[in-house]
Structures are given as structure tokens and as C-alpha cells.
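Subject: complex prediction, re-run

Hi both,

The earlier run crashed halfway through, so I resubmitted it with identical inputs.
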Amino acid sequence: MAVDTQTVTLGTSGNLVGYSSPGPVFGSISDGSCNFKSGAAYEGLFWDSANKYLRLQINSTSQLSNAGFGGISFPDGDFYPRTASAISFISYISTTQWLWSGVTESPWGGSTSGSKVVTFANDTSAGTYGFQVFNSSSVLIVDSVFDKQASAIVQGSTFVGANSTSGSISCPGMTTTNSDEVCVLFYDEPTSGSTSVTVTRNNGSFTLSNPLASSATIVWVALRY
Amino acid sequence: MAYGIQVFNQAGATLLDSELQTSIQVPYGPTSFATGTSFTKQAEEIILYNRAANGVPLLKKPFGSYTITLSGSVAVNRISVRQTDEDTPPASGTYGINIYDAGGTLTKTFSDSYARSFTIIGIFPTGTINDGAVVYSGSTTDIWVGAGSPDWGSTWRYNQFNFSTTSITFVNYINFLGTIPMPNFSPVIVAKIRS
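This time it finished cleanly. Structure:
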């Protein structure tokens, strides 16, 4: 169960990406108060691309306990359990640090700027949402707890005449603005250098426009992701 | 809902909805795609690519054809992404969830025959990025990308990618008295395979 949510505005310093306040100073965090450590200030949450470390730092005058902290979820679906980290107290910057080693991929999804929302989980599984399915080799095959599972809302083939627009295609859940959640992808679509099939979003439906001088059958899928 | 399952996260976002959605699967593990070879994809599946060597793999999928050819000298890995309904689940011995309607008819299969779980990091809708845009920065080991129907010729590259170990760049240009960068003609998908 989430016990805190923070918005990190990414900054960089050399190989470091994320937020840090004790120095070097880069990025920022909001609201910056740690709910599971009595409102102590977050002093760092950053990835070291050279040494492959992820560090979480919280202000303290002595080493904090692990109590109440179960791990961090990042927007692209990665979850870093606290049990996989090493805790230490860094006196000269008055911070308790949790360090994850071997983090070869950016937990920020490759971004070095912009805002990212991270969620801090409690140290109990009680109340966690979703489910996980493992195969017989213990490979995670469905993970709705930390991944947002991609799903097909509807798919099909649509014949569109030359320089024409299709009729309305029903797509429950689509709105004019939620392209970061529902998107139309193409299995097969015509392109010709400077033109492409256009998707016009509506509330609960969309249309396809064929800009070419010849008719085309467009094969598509609308995804929720 | 009449039947099935729905799963929401604590923010209220839909994670699974068996009435309105069908899950997407990666039905088999990554396959090496060597230069000078081709394969034919299913009509309703998306092919995603992952770095096998640095550089720009020259991929081609003509409109109306489902055969994808790799030319040039840069190999890639490929996976298929498609609805679970496209495959017949194994009869027994597998793991997952089936959803039945009130009459006992199997309506959705969520996980039988899944090879890997994956998550979509992002989708760049048509016209939102240009040639040279970095679509992923960081280790590219488990990162997979794809963009509609790729094509190339002596003076153009459409819907292609430049792979390195630390980033993936979108390649989409025409060379006419100089390189003219062009916006993406198709949505660009960036995904990560769970392991």
C-alpha cells in the first residue's frame, strides 16, 4: 500500500539523474516531506548511470529504521523493494541512505528532465492492489501491482477511400485528450514520405483519415496502456 | 459490468477490464533477426525491436504486405506483441486466468501462454517527434521499440531507429540536397520486457 507519493522534477549532475539537495544540488521534489518518517525531508532520490546505483536519502540525525518503508515504484513500472537495498547513515550530510546496486537501467525511463511521480510503498503487502502471475520458471508474466498492463480495447480493419475519412469507430475510454492512456497503433498503414494516416480523437470514438490519392485498408488497434 | 473482472489501482486507473479490453501478450521470447533475412508477421500483431548491434537496422514492411525484411549490416532482436485472443491457449499445464460468461463460454484469456510480462513506457503519437529524437536514454538491454511500417531507400529512412547501448534514436528523414528531418508518420512505441 502506498504511504507516500512525491513528484520529482528531474535534474542532472554529471552521471546523476533525479533530485538531490545536500550537494550537488539538482532537481526538486514536491512536497518533499516523508510521510513514513514523521515528515522528515527527502534529501535525494537519484540514479547514478556510471555506478548503476539508485539512492534514496532522507534527512536524519542518526540512522533511521526500515520500519514503514517497503520500496519505491517508478512511473514506467519498475519497483525497487527496500529489502534489496543497503541502509546506511551518512553523518556529514545528516542523511539516512538506502542504496540499490546493479540498477543498469534508468528508473526514470530514460528521461533526464521533466516531472515524474514516484510512490513509496509500506513494508507490508496488505492492501496492495492488483495481482501477479508467475510461470513455472518463476518468470513474472502478469504484474498488475506495479506494471500498468497494456490492453487492447478494440482492433479491426477499416477501408478508407482516397483523401477521405472513415466513419466513427467506437473506442470506449478514449477521450480527446487522453493520448497518454489510450492510443491507436497500426498493424498496417499506408505512408508516403510526407503524409500519414491521421487519427482524430473523440470522446468514446475516433476516425481515421487517409491522405493518399488511392484508397487503403488500414489495420489498427486501440490500446489502453 | 455483466461478467468478468476489473482491476483498478489505488489511483482509480484501470489495470484490467475483461469486459471492455483484451490483454496484450508477448507470446514467445526474443528472436534474432539477422541481416539479409525476412519473416512474415501476423496481420494483427506489432513487431518491436531491440538492440543486437549498434547502428541503424534497415527494416522494410511495405503497405499491404506483412513480410518484414532486414537489410544493411545491423542485426536486431524482435518480439511480437498481440492480443491473447490471437493464440489458442495451451490445453493444460500452464498458468493464467480465463474469464467465462454466465453461460460458461470462455470469453477472455488473460495470461495463458504468456511468455513475458511487459509494460509500455511510452507512445509518441503521430507527428510528435522528429528525426533525431531520443526515444529512450539509459541502458537499452530490455528496451523494445517499434513504429508502424518501416521503409528505406537510397535517399530516405522512414520509421527506423539508431540503437546504441545507452540510447535509442528515432530516424526519419529524406535526403534531398541535404538531410531533411521529418516527423513520425506513425505512432512510436517504447516498451520494456519484464524478467
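Chain A has a mean pLDDT of 85.

- K.
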